[in-house]
Specification:
Largest sheet: 2 strands, parallel
Low-confidence stretches: none
Shape: globular
Number of helices: 7
Helix content: 40-55%
Length: 169
């Protein structure tokens, strides 16, 4: 009921919240109103999350990316407690979907490989993809992803950390 549930007042709030001069409080209030509207009216089927760290079997297991290292090295943070919350993110996200819905967390490099495979699959005939597709992502760090020719994504972390890439500049 998205279109039916968004009132003229809420639409106006959304537009004002997207204005670059909107205050943080105004934006937070608009987001809270939207979340309440969604919570009251929409059952979400699934949530997908591409996360920039090692993910195995739907769990963020951590690695040496700067985000995880930043949590570990910050003396004001209880690393074990905070990382446990991150590891259980899949369970926390289940609160926001319908009872039989699905939460899937995947490494961002693997997601890039899946996206590349889909794009390639639409541009060539299926018999041209015999062994799978390998992709690199340049973003958080150097992520790598592999997707097999049958469309399956292996449950192995393929992160490569702390590389410096000279692009000739």
């Amino acid at each position: 009921c998205i279109d039916e549930c968004i009132t003229a007042d809420l639409k106006d709030n959304i537009e004002k919240a997207l204005d670059k001069s909107a205050s943080d409080d105004f934006m937070e209030n608009a987001v809270n109103k939207i979340e309440k509207m969604i919570e009251d009216n929409i059952e979400i089927d699934s949530i997908g999350l591409a996360f920039p760290d090692v993910v195995v079997r739907n769990k963020i297991v951590g690695g040496e990316v700067y985000k995880t290292r930043g949590i570990r090295n910050n003396k004001e943070i209880n690393y074990e407690k905070d990382f446990k919350q991150l590891t259980n993110l899949d369970n926390e996200l289940k609160k926001y979907i319908k009872k039989d819905g699905v939460v899937k967390i995947i490494n961002d490099g693997l997601m890039a490989a899946f996206t590349a495979a889909v794009e390639i699959a639409f541009s060539v005939s299926s018999d041209e993809i015999e062994k799978g597709i390998f992709a690199h992502t340049l973003g958080t760090e150097l992520g790598t992803g592999w997707i097999m020719s049958d469309g399956k994504i292996p449950e192995i972390p393929l992160e490569a950390y702390n590389f410096i890439i000279d692009l000739g500049s």
